[in-house]
Specification:
Largest sheet: 7 strands, mixed
Distance between the termini: 12 Å
Strand order of the largest sheet: 4-5-6-3-7-8-9
Mean pLDDT: 95
Number of strands: 9
Shape: globular
Oligomer: single chain
Helix content: 40-55%
Order of helices and strands: HEHHHEHEHEEEHEHEHEH
Radius of gyration: 17 Å
Strand content: 15-25%
Amino acid sequence: MLSTGALRAHLLAARLAGPVATSREVSLRSYRLFAARDPRVTLGLDPGRGWGERELLRLMADRCGVSDDPAHVSGPDVIDPERTVAGLDAFAARLAQAAVRRAPVLFGTGHPHRLLGFYAALADALSAAGCPVLTPAQGRCIDITTRFGVRTYNLDYVRGVALVREPGAGAFGGGTGAHSHSPLPVRVVLEAAAAGRGPLPELVVGDHGWVCGAGQLGIEAIGLADTDDPALFVGEAEGRVAVAVPLDDAVRSAYYLPLTRYVLNRACLSQ
């Protein structure tokens, strides 16, 4: 069992928390865009009320530990490791509850190059505990608006984790996929599950549009979020995202392995 102290030390050493690679400038830009309801940063969430930039900054200071000083406009952003540990504990508790009731679960990531292994290990553990890990709409084409215009992606699953690929990016079921913020993939997956009369997920686990898109539709959703992802924390504050864990979501994939062990142990899912 990885102790809380050892986890905290790892978070700081790997820069998952403490001073992180995400810059203050990038975070503040995201808050401005979210306040303007730019879909690139709302990630499928339709906020229940208006959120101004100052209010978002106060929320992110409360949920992540970033500075609440609007005059602080440059340098690395900061995540409080205590808030990360508390978020991982809450995240693990939701997984444990799903395991007890053998709930159908959907995993999806917009950060497959970094977080695929983390989610895949959780999917393996929940599957072993009797939870159906859902994989609807594999191979479906999805048109997603990017900064380069509308591009068509293919939906795929790797070890039970949904992701999107650019056409011709590799064989289905192997390798990693594309970085994406879009909520369209989770909407396509849920629509396919409903049309196929199969089970709908009772829990969605992931990041970006997977979490916000599912939470917006009333499905329990938990995930990881960086300081430039205010949508998940707004969703949590408004009651549509169950748990948002603050951490850097783009460090080396191996650095998430201790978090995997910690979460599985806390959820009593270690094998």
